[in-house]
Design brief:
Layout: H1 2-57, H2 68-75
Length: 76
């Protein structure tokens, strides 16, 4: 009878350890997903910032057209 109880306790312990291992894997996966999400948001913000800089540099107000005299002198 005591062998059966010890065997049951041993099996339940192994099952508990297996469940804990699975739970830890789930926690690690959730952490990785959250970390990747934060990185994605940070990169999206950087892309948006670069787009604004490009639009500022290439906007019609910032592009200066050289006077015709200067262009004529370069052709000669």
């Amino acid at each position: 009878m005591t062998k059966k109880i010890v065997c049951i306790i041993f099996i339940l312990t192994l099952a508990s350890l297996a469940l804990l291992a699975i739970r830890q894997e789930q926690i690690n996966a959730a952490h990785t997903i959250a970390e990747n999400h934060r990185k994605m948001i940070r990169l999206t913000q950087q892309i948006d910032q670069i787009r604004v800089e490009i639009e500022t540099v290439t906007s019609p107000e910032s592009i200066t057209i050289q006077p015709i005299q200067e262009l004529a002198s370069h052709d000669e």
